[in-house]
Every structure is written in C-alpha cells, then in structure tokens.
Amino acid sequence: MKVERQWNTLERDTAQRMEAAARFIGPGKQVKVEDVVPLLEAVVRPGDKVNVEGNNQKQADFLAEALCKVDPAKIHDLHMVQSSVPLAAHLDVFEKGIAKKLDFAFGGPQSGRVATFIREGKLELGAIHTYLELFGRYCLDLTPRVSLICAYEADREGNLYTGFNTEDTPVIVEATKFRKGIVIAQVNKIVDKLPRVDIPADWIDAVVQSPKPFFIEPLFTRDPGLVTERHILLAMMCLKGIYGEYGVKRINHGIGFLTSAIELLLPTYGEELGLKGKCCTQLVLNPHPTMIPAIESGWIEAIYCFGGELGMENYVRARSDVFFTGPDGSLRSNRALAQTAGHYALDMFIGSTLQIDQYGNSSTATANRVAGFGGAPNMGCDAKGRRHSTDSWLKCGREVPSMNELIGDMPRGKRLVVQGMETFGEGRAPAFVDRLDAWKLAENAKLDLPPVMIYGDDVTHLVTEEGIAYLNRCADLETRMAAIRAVAGYTEVGLRAKPEETKRLRDDGIVKTAADLDIDPDTATRDRLAARNMRELVDWSGGLYNPPARFRNW
After folding, report:
1. Which end of the chain has fewer CB atoms surrounding its CB within 10 Å, N or C?
2. What are the protein's GO molecular function terms (predicted)?
C-alpha cells in the first residue's frame, strides 16, 4: 500500500511554532521586551539550527542576550550557524548548555574564548568558513530554522530599514524565510514611515524595539597616529614594487595598519610615483576613514562596501559618486554581494596573517586564538571561474612558470594575493613558523583539515621589512621556500636563509629589498602620511567624518 508523503512538513511545523508564539505577538508583529524570552522558548526547538545576526560590525545583541536566558531544559543542543561571534553572549549559550555546535567565519574579540571552549569540549566546531562559503551553506545544508536579526527601524507593519549597515541581513533572511523558517528582528526604533524598505514585512515574523540601540563596532577604523615608520616602509615597498609594478586598479585592503599606511600614502608617495589614475581606482572595501584623503584627492572612482563604518555616515552620504547609496542617501552595503565582487572582480587582495609557514600557507587560527577568516579566503585566492581579463591579472599570470602545466598552451591570468607583515608580531611572536598552530587546533577540534586561511599556492607576494618575495615568479617549491626564507628575518624560518641563495634570488628579481627598489628606509617617515592623526582625517573630510568617541583625542 502506497503511503502518501507529506510535502509541507516544514510549513506545518512553523505554523505550530507560530501558534505557540501568537500570544506574544501584537499588531504590526510587535513583541514586548519582557515577552522576548518566552517567545524564543515558543519558536525554538532543541537541536535547531539558529542564526543570531553577528556581523563584523552590527550585532543583534539584545536577541543574543535573550537567547542566553531561555531554559536549557527546554532549549538545548542548538547548532549555531552565524558569520561572526564577537559578543560574549554568542559563547555564553555554549557555557549554559543551550548551544552545542558552531559553524562560523570570524571570531574577533572572542577568538581566545573560542579556542578555550574547543579545548575544554564546551563547543563542537563544525568548520571555520569564509563568509561566502557559509552563506552558500545557508542555502543548502546549514539553513537556519530560526534567525534573530537586527535593523535600524521597523514601521507599523513590520517592514525593516537596515540603513547604513545592511551587511548580512538579506542573505540570512532569504535563506531562512524561503525555506519556511522563522525570522525575529530587533530594531532601534518603530516608526510610522521608513526612509526606504530593505526587508519587506512578509519576510519577518516578529519585531521587538530593543531597550537600547544595537551594538556596532568600528572594526576598520585605524588611528593614523598609530601608524609606525615600519608600516610606512612596508607600504612604500608595496606601492612601488607591487601596485606600480602591476598597475592594479581593483583591490581589497584587509584590516590593519599596513593597508592604512598604504591608503594614507596614496596622495603623497603614490603621486610621487605617478600612480594616480593607474592604480587603486575601484575597491571592495568598508568605508575606511583612512581612505578619505585618497578620495578627496581624486584617486578613487568607486567603493562597494561589505558594511558601514561608525562615524562615516555623513561623509558617505556626501560622496555618492564614490559609494553606493540608496534614494534616502545612506550607504547600501551587502556582504554577500561584496564577497562575490571580491571573489571574482578583484585584481589584488592585500592583507595580513598571524602565522605563515615555510611553504607560504597562512592562518589566523592558532591553538590559543581562533580569529576566523572572514572574507580573506574568497579574496585571497585565484578564482578559477573568472573569465574576464585585466592587464595586471594577465601580467601576474605570465610570470608564473607553471601556469599552463595542465592546460597546454592556453593562456590564463592570476590574481595578486599579497601578505604583508612584520617578521615578528604582537608580543614578539614570530610571524614565520615551520608548522602552523592550525595543525594543533585541528587536533583539538577533531577537524579533518587544519584551518588554513590562504593556501601557499594562492599567495603571489610576501612583504616584510626584509623585502618583497615575488612567489609567483618561482619555478618550483624549493625556490618558493628559499624566497620565503629570504624575507622571514630572524625567525626560525628566516635563519635558514643562505646569503648566496638570497643573492641569486635578488639577481633574478624573485626577491627585492628596499634598496633594490631604490627606497631609502630613512625616508619612510610619518611626515609622508596625508593625515597623521584623527583630527586631520576630519579636516580632510570637511568636517563630515565624525569619529567614535574613543578615537577623539583632541
């Protein structure tokens, strides 16, 4: 006898959950603050995949804290699937026994605690993803059953305005709602009319006006006052030896003082080199305050943003030729689209890492700190699906001796992937090691693979105070390892460099020191920076930039 299969089990299950929650949801889908915890206990079930919107910057912090207050006897063994875990509440759910497993992309301030929880068995790690990888899994095997998101405002019907920081919201909501999941939003304010509708009301099941505005982190803000002469030297080598050498126009800058130094040198040293209009014209980038002088100097044609940056709201609104803004004038950011642009449209990614091994593999996940990868693996790889060409992409590809090894005489380009760092990092920890700590983390977390951020075969250039290693010009692994040793300084890796070997690499143009680039280190001084402190950034902006309080030192 044929048994009739039910094809709407998810829909029926959601209806049952929403029926249990109905008494907590009033007109306009509004929920009282005091009813949020019982609401969560009504809609979440043990073992659910749950997303708490934790972005690089904006956080559904009120809902994250509410989830920590549910009864573990009722709600437990949750599988958290969220891009970032920067708040204490994101890990408190594991300490309380409410959550069991985590799939994420970026740890930020909780990176040390994540490592501890893994080591102590409080947290089962699924994988450390890149953002785009995790978003893709939202649409396949990691679809959230319940998502807790945040927005600036909601109207009386439940439509949402995400404003300056949209970030991950659209991809979370669509993946959840269109597979019959439940979406609950915290907002700063409920209003009669929104500046624009970013998420329609019929995609939202409940809205709560949180007691205070959601937390937002100025993650990409760097004080020019903390840029050192070492950062400036590295930045000068990058500008002359890589930006100018390859004529890279479409770029992503990772977080850090090296890229901030590059941004602040564009209107000064960059113009001395004659690079304006030839380099760094389109970027996939958050609105970094240190980009203001370059924008004002006419270097930048367009910037598409992953998210916003606190204090840059008015500046972005006033520079709509550069930034993508809505009809209301505010920034429209979207992490999924920015990651896609970063994966396929860039000529170069330049960032940093905590550790790099003797083969060029790098990771920000160590035994004691699981910082995660964010978008670096997407932007720091050679996207094999790319089918359009640029001069810099083709030039980099032509320099790779083994580029056509498996495709005959078929030409192909290669993205520039640059890792720039001082040979010794925070606490004098060596940046270059024989074996990544990621191997130990894999053992602790019972992972099949060590969590590598960027694999060595994707890295084309390494930049340290010792010089630039053009790894894309190396014919084999032994030559690559020798080039890495040549720029690894007094680390265990660098101490194995042989002077005669390094000289040969310099003669062949595979390694270039500052002297080889005709850069005098004594000229790498702070007076080269277009802005030397936060106040000068405000002046460059014509008063439009409003730095967060902790960056105001005047």
Report:
1. N
2. transferase activity
